[in-house]
Write a structure and sequence with these properties.
A: 435 residues; alpha+beta; two-stranded antiparallel ribbon; globular; B: globular
C-alpha cells in the first residue's frame, strides 16, 4: 500500500516536474540560444569583412538598411565570433519562477501575473496575433541595464553625413533605475515607497555645451502601461522645471536625429504602438567585446577608459565588430495618426532582448532613419561591469538618410548602483542640480 | 573569492553584490570632481527707431563649480560661482541720447495760454521762467544757477506730447555729470561708470552667484539639502511675468521685461534648507523648503531717467520729482491762468483761458528721500510635491515690496505761506517699500487628450501699497490676487517643417485689486490709477530647423486694459558649439502711454484755499477733483508694454562660448 502511494506520489511529482522541465527548457532556450551551437552562414567567418564587394553574398543575413549602406560603401562590416551574452542568473531565475504564470490582458498594454524576469520566454508563434506584443513586453521588462545603471558620461555628436563635419558635441550623464521587477540590487523585487507604481525612471543631465548645460530630463514610467509617462525637462537658462507633453517625446531631442521615444530602441508605452511579429531570422547584429576594439583616442577618461570610435561615411558608423545572431523581427506602428513616423522595424536580439537595430519609416512609408546600438559584452568592458550580465549599450549611430545627417553616441556604461540613487529620479533633484 | 562564492551560493552572491554596492555607494557619492568651468563673451547691440543705438552691451561671464565630495558632514559638498561683467558702450557711442550730452534746454507747455503767447511768443515757457514763478510766494521759483536749463528732457517727451497735462523736467545725464535727481541714494543715483559697468557696484553684483551646498542623507530617498550664499531661488512655473517668482528682485534696466529672468534676477545672499522626502505616502515626490534672504533689501532696478531701459519710465518721474524737492522745478500746465487772475496776478491778458506752468521751489513738491528697509528678514516656506502626476506647490513668503510706493506723509513747505507741515494731498513724497505677505500655490499637469501641458500659479498678497489720490497721503494698501494660466503644446505644422513640431506656449496673467478704489470726481476719476482687473496675454511660437541649429520664434504679449502689445520675432543660430548669433526685432503696437490719463493731483488743493479750483465746493477742503493728465500716473495704466511704446528695436547679439 505504502509502495503504491509512493508510486502515485512519484508519478505526480514526475508529471509536475515534467511540466517545469518543459518551462525550464523554454527558459534555457530563450536565455542560452548558443549553448549548443551558433548560427552559421555560407562564406561567413570570423575576422572577415563584408563590404560593397561581397555584400550580395550576405544579403540574407543583413537587414535591408545595413545591406544598402554596405552596398553603397558607407561602411565596412567586420565580422566577429557569435558569442553568448549571458544575462544575470538572478534574472534568469526570476523568469524561471514566473514561467507560465504571465498572460496578456484584454487591452494592448495590459499584463497579468508578472513579477520579474522575462515575461514570455517561449518562442513567439507566427499564428499568435499578440506575439508582437509579448515580444514588446519582453523588451520592456528586459534585463537591459539591470536594476540600475548609468551612462557616465555619454557623448553625442551631430554630423553631416556627406561632409563628415561635426556640428555639435553634447556631453550627458544618463541614469536608469527600475523601481519594480528588480532582481539583484536591494530592494528586491521593488521599492516600498512607490505611490504611483512606477516601473522605471530615466534621468538625463546635459553637461556640455554651454547653451544646453544643466538641461535635465526626467522620465517616470508607470508600471501600468496604460498610464502616460510623466516627463519633465529642466532648462538651465530658465532655471525652471517644465513638464513635457507627449508631443515632445516624439520630437527631436536637443536637435539630435533621434527623439526621446527612440531611446534604447523604443522608449514609450506598449499601448502607444501596434506590434506585429514578423518572424525570426539570423542576422548580423552589432555585438562585440569593447576591450578588443580599436578605440577612440579623443575623449579619453581620467581612468583611461576609451570610447568606441567612428568612421565610414560622415563618420557615422561605429568601428565595431558584428555577429550573426538570432533575432526577432518586430514591427511597431503608432496608434496616434499624428505620430511623425509610420512604423519602426526592430531587430530584437533573441538572447538579450536588446534592440541593436531599428529601421524607421516616415509618414509616407519611405525609409527614413537607421539606428544601430552596439552591444558590448560586460566581461570585456569596465571592471565594474564584469559579471553584471548586462549587455552594455556601447555606441549608437542614428542616420537620417533623407536629411543626410546622423547623430552618433559614445557610451561609458557603468552598472553601478552608487551612481543611481533614487533621489536622483525626482523632480526636486532637477531643481537642486540645476543652478 | 571563488570559495566564498561557492559557499554563499547564488542568493549569497546577490547579497554580497548588494553589500558591495552599498559599501561602494558612499565612496562614489563622496568622490571629488575637477573644477567645472565655462563661460562666454557676448556683444548685444540694439538699435532703436529714433534715438539710434540703445544698447552696445559687452558681457563676459565665467562659471565655475567643484564637487568636493564628503566635507563638513555633508555629502557632495559643492561650491558654485558665476561672475559677470558688462560694459555698455552706448553711454559712450550715443552719449547725445544716453550719456553726458543727453538732453538739453527745455520749455514747458502753457496750454492755450494767451499770456504765454504774449510773454514768450509761444505757449511754451523755458525751465525756471514760468508765469507762476519767483515772487508768487515763498515756495515759488528756484535758482537757475544751481538748477539750470540744460541736460533736461520733458517728462514723457519720448512717448507723448503734454496734451495739456502736467509735465516736469527730467535731468537725463548720468549722476556724475548732473547730480540733479540723484538724491535717492541706492535707488536711482547712477554715475556714468555705474551705467557702463552695472555689475561693479557696492553690492558686488559682478558676483552673480557664489554659494556652497551639500546634503545630509537621511534615507534611500530622503535627504536634507542645504545651500548658502549669493544665489537665485526660483519659485513658480511661468515665463516672462512673475507671480510666485518673487524671491530675487529683478533688474529691468538691462532690457525691460524681455531678457531671460535668469539674466536679470538680482542674486541675493540667501540660505535655504530643503528636506526632500522623495516618495512618501501618496506623493511621488515631496519637498519642504525654508528660505531666508539675509541680504540687505534690494528693490527692482527700474533704470534711471536718461537710461535706455527704464520700465514704465518710472525712474524718470522719480528723478524729476527728486529734482523738484532738492532744486525746485517747472511743472507745465499746472495752474489755470484764470485762477492767477482771480488771485490778483497782474497778467497782460486777464481773460486768458489757458493753463500756465509753475516754478516750484525746493522742498515744496517732489520726492524727498528713499527709505530702503534694511532687509535681512525676508523669508518663506514652500511645500512642493507630485501627486498622481500633478506637480503642486504651496508657498508663503514674507518680503518687502520690490516696486516702490510714494507715501505723501512728509513735511513740506506751503508754496504760498512758507509754512512747513504734512499737507494732505500734496505731491511731496518719500519712497518706501512696505512689508508684504504672500500666500500662493502652483500646479502643473498634462492633459493627454489634447496633448497639452497646463501650468497654474496663484498668489494672494497683503500689505502691498499703491498710489491712491483718494487718500490724504496719496497711497493706500490693498490685498492683491494674481494668477496665471499657462498652456504648452508641441504641434506639427508640417507645411512649414515636416521633421519637427513647433512649440506653442500661451499664458494669461490676471491681476485683481481686492481693495481697489476709484470714484468719479467733479472733473474726472479719482483713486487708484491701476486697473482693478487686468489681463496680459502672451504667446510664443518657436520652431527648429537644421537639427536645432536654427531656431526662429515669435513672442507676442498683449496688455488687455492698456490695449498695448509687443511682437518680438527673432532667429537664433547656433553656428557651432562656440558661436551663437541672435537677430530680432521688438515692435510695439496698440496704444502708447499718451493714450492713458489719470488724476494728476493738480486739483488736489493741498494748500487751501490758494490751490482750490472752482470744482472744490469748499475751497478750504483739500482733496482731488480729478483733473487728469498723462503724467505721472498714466504709466500705471499703460503698463510695461504700453509705456515703452516708442521703443521699437532691431537687436543683434553674438556670443562666443568657451
Amino acid at each position: 500500500m505504502l509502495k503504491r502511494k509512493l508510486s502515485v506520489a512519484t508519478l505526480v511529482a514526475a508529471l509536475v516536474a515534467g511540466a517545469n522541465f518543459a518551462s525550464a527548457d523554454a527558459v534555457d532556450d530563450s536565455f542560452y540560444p548558443y549553448r549548443d551551437t551558433v548560427p552559421e552562414f555560407p562564406g561567413l567567418s570570423s575576422g572577415m569583412t563584408i563590404n560593397a564587394g561581397n555584400v550580395e553574398q550576405f544579403k540574407d543575413i543583413l537587414d535591408p538598411a545595413v545591406y544598402q549602406q554596405l552596398k553603397d560603401g558607407w561602411f565596412e562590416m567586420k565580422v566577429g565570433d557569435t558569442t553568448s551574452f549571458d544575462l544575470h542568473p538572478n534574472y534568469v531565475e526570476a523568469t524561471r519562477k514566473s514561467a507560465g504564470q504571465v498572460s496578456l490582458g484584454d487591452e494592448v498594454g495590459q499584463i497579468n501575473g508578472f513579477v520579474a524576469g522575462r515575461p514570455f520566454p517561449e518562442e513567439p508563434l507566427a499564428d499568435d496575433p499578440r506575439a508582437g506584443e509579448k515580444l514588446a513586453f519582453n523588451y520592456k521588462y528586459g534585463y537591459n541595464w539591470g536594476d540600475s545603471a548609468a551612462i557616465y558620461p555619454f557623448y553625442w555628436k551631430y554630423r553631416d553625413l556627406d561632409s563628415g563635419k561635426i556640428e555639435r558635441t553634447l556631453k550627458f550623464n544618463f541614469h536608469f533605475l527600475n523601481y519594480k521587477h528588480r532582481v539583484i540590487q536591494e530592494p528586491v523585487p521593488e521599492f516600498e515607497d512607490n505611490p504611483s507604481d512606477l516601473f522605471r525612471g530615466i534621468y538625463v543631465q546635459v553637461l556640455e555645451p554651454f547653451d544646453v548645460k544643466n538641461t535635465q530630463l526626467l522620465i517616470h514610467r508607470s508600471d501600468n502601461d496604460l498610464e502616460r509617462d510623466n516627463t519633465w525637462l529642466y532648462l538651465g537658462f530658465q532655471r525652471r522645471v517644465r513638464r513635457l507633453s507627449s508631443g515632445q517625446i516624439t520630437d527631436s531631442f536637443l536637435g539630435a536625429d533621434l527623439m526621446i521615444e527612440d531611446f534604447e530602441g523604443y522608449n514609450g508605452r506598449i499601448s502607444d504602438m501596434n506590434w506585429t511579429y514578423k518572424g525570426t531570422q539570423n542576422v548580423m547584429l552589432p555585438f562585440f567585446n569593447h576591450n578588443e576594439l580599436t578605440l577612440a583616442t579623443d575623449l579619453e577618461e581620467p581612468d583611461g577608459y576609451q570610447f568606441v570610435d567612428f568612421s565610414g561615411k560622415g563618420g557615422c558608423f561605429p568601428n565595431i565588430t558584428w555577429q550573426l545572431r538570432k533575432a526577432y523581427v518586430l514591427e511597431s506602428d503608432p496608434v496616434d495618426d499624428n505620430h511623425p513616423i509610420s512604423k519602426r522595424v526592430h531587430f530584437i536580439d533573441a538572447q538579450t532582448f536588446t534592440i541593436p537595430r531599428t529601421l524607421i519609416y516616415d509618414r509616407k512609408g519611405d525609409f527614413w532613419k537607421s539606428f544601430i546600438i552596439g552591444q558590448a559584452h560586460p566581461d570585456h568592458h569596465l571592471d565594474k561591469n564584469k559579471g553584471s550580465g548586462v549587455s552594455i549599450d556601447d555606441a549608437f549611430s542614428f542616420v537620417d538618410v533623407q536629411a543626410g545627417h546622423c547623430t552618433t553616441g559614445q557610451f561609458k556604461g557603468q552598472v553601478d548602483p552608487a551612481l543611481n540613487a533614487p533621489k536622483l529620479f525626482t523632480v526636486q533633484n532637477l531643481r537642486a542640480t540645476g543652478r | 573569492m571563488i570559495n566564498i562564492k561557492r559557499t554563499l551560493g547564488r542568493a549569497g552572491r546577490s547579497s554580497l553584490a548588494v553589500f558591495v554596492a552599498s559599501a561602494a555607494a558612499p565612496a562614489a557619492l563622496s568622490q571629488q570632481s575637477a573644477w567645472d568651468t565655462a563661460g562666454f563673451v557676448e556683444n548685444a547691440t540694439f538699435y532703436r527707431d529714433g534715438p539710434g543705438l540703445s544698447k552696445v552691451r559687452n558681457t563676459a561671464q565665467f562659471e565655475f563649480s567643484k564637487n568636493f565630495g564628503k566635507r563638513f558632514g555633508l555629502s557632495n559638498f559643492r561650491i558654485n560661482g558665476t561672475l559677470r561683467g558688462t560694459y555698455d558702450a552706448v553711454y559712450d557711442l550715443n552719449d547725445d541720447e544716453f550719456g553726458k550730452n543727453a538732453g538739453g534746454a527745455r520749455s514747458f507747455e502753457n496750454f492755450a495760454s494767451s499770456n504765454a503767447q504774449i510773454i514768450y511768443g509761444s505757449t511754451s515757457s523755458p525751465w525756471g521762467q514760468s508765469i507762476l514763478g519767483t515772487g508768487a510766494g515763498p515756495g515759488f521759483g528756484f535758482d537757475l544757477g544751481a538748477n539750470p536749463n540744460e541736460g533736461l528732457k520733458v517728462l514723457g517727451e519720448d512717448f507723448h506730447d503734454p496734451n495739456a497735462g502736467v509735465t516736469l523736467g527730467v535731468p537725463v545725464r548720468p549722476c556724475d555729470e548732473d547730480r540733479r535727481g540723484c538724491g535717492l541714494d541706492g535707488f536711482t543715483d547712477f554715475d556714468t561708470n555705474d551705467l557702463r559697468f552695472p555689475e561693479f557696484n557696492d553690492q558686488l553684483d559682478f558676483i552673480r552667484e557664489l554659494y556652497v551646498e551639500g546634503s545630509i542623507p537621511t534615507g534611500d530617498f530622503s535627504e536634507l539639502f542645504l545651500r548658502v550664499g549669493k544665489q537665485q531661488v526660483v519659485w513658480g512655473r511661468t515665463d516672462l511675468f512673475r507671480v510666485l517668482d518673487i524671491i530675487n528682485p529683478v533688474d529691468y534696466s538691462r532690457h525691460n521685461i524681455y531678457d531671460e529672468l535668469e539674466d536679470i534676477r538680482i542674486p541675493q545672499w540667501i540660505a535655504s534648507a530643503e528636506y526632500r522626502w522623495g516618495a512618501v505616502g501618496p506623493f511621488d515626490d515631496m519637498n519642504l523648503q525654508l528660505v531666508w534672504n539675509f541680504d540687505e533689501f534690494r528693490p527692482n532696478i527700474l533704470g534711471q531717467g536718461g537710461s535706455p531701459f527704464a520700465i514704465l519710465d518710472a525712474n524718470s518721474f522719480f528723478r524729476a520729482m527728486n529734482t523738484c524737492w532738492d532744486y525746485g522745478c517747472t511743472a507745465s500746465n499746472f495752474v489755470p491762468a484764470g485762477a492767477l487772475v482771480a488771485a490778483g496776478a497782474p497778467l497782460p491778458d486777464p481773460t486768458d483761458p489757458g493753463l500756465v506752468a509753475a516754478d516750484f521751489g525746493p522742498g515744496v513738491i517732489g520726492i524727498r528721500d528713499v527709505n530702503l528697509p534694511s532687509g535681512h528678514d525676508q523669508g518663506g516656506i514652500k511645500l512642493e510635491g507630485v501627486y498622481k502626476g500633478v506637480g503642486f506647490s504651496l508657498n508663503y513668503y514674507h518680503f518687502y515690496q520690490q516696486l516702490p510706493v510714494l507715501r505723501g506723509d512728509i513735511p513740506s513747505m506751503n508754496a504760498f505761506t512758507g509754512e512747513v507741515a504734512d499737507w494732505d494731498y500734496l505731491i511731496a513724497f518719500d519712497i518706501d517699500f512696505p512689508e508684504v505677505d504672500l500666500f500662493g500655490g502652483s500646479l502643473d499637469f498634462y492633459v493627454d487628450s489634447i496633448k497639452s501641458v497646463f501650468r497654474v500659479e496663484a498668489t494672494y498678497t497683503t500689505g502691498e501699497e499703491v498710489a491712491n489720490s483718494l487718500e490724504p497721503d496719496l497711497y493706500s494698501d490693498t490685498d492683491m490676487f494674481r494668477w496665471v494660466l499657462g498652456w504648452d503644446r508641441n504641434t506639427w505644422i508640417r507645411p512649414l517643417n515636416k521633421n519637427k513640431a513647433f512649440l506653442l506656449s500661451a499664458q494669461v496673467f490676471g491681476e485683481h485689486f481686492l481693495d481697489h478704489e476709484l470714484e468719479k470726481g467733479p472733473l474726472g476719476d479719482v483713486g487708484m490709477p491701476n486697473w482693478e482687473d487686468n489681463y496680459i496675454f502672451t504667446f510664443l511660437i518657436k520652431g527648429w530647423w537644421m537639427n536645432d541649429l536654427l531656431s526662429p520664434q515669435i513672442i507676442t504679449a498683449y496688455d488687455y486694459e492698456a490695449n498695448a502689445g509687443v511682437v518680438a520675432p527673432s532667429v537664433d543660430w547656433l553656428i557651432n558649439d562656440n558661436w551663437r548669433l541672435m537677430v530680432g526685432f521688438n515692435i510695439k503696437f496698440g496704444d502708447g502711454m499718451g493714450d492713458q490719463e489719470f488724476d494728476d493731483c493738480r486739483g488736489c488743493n493741498p494748500f487751501p484755499p490758494y490751490t482750490a479750483t472752482p470744482a472744490h465746493a469748499d475751497p478750504f477742503q483739500s482733496g482731488s477733483v480729478g483733473i487728469s493728465g498723462i503724467e505721472p500716473l498714466g504709466r500705471f495704466r499703460s503698463g510695461p508694454i504700453g509705456s515703452a511704446s516708442e521703443e521699437d528695436e532691431f537687436q543683434v547679439t553674438i556670443r562666443y562660448r568657451f
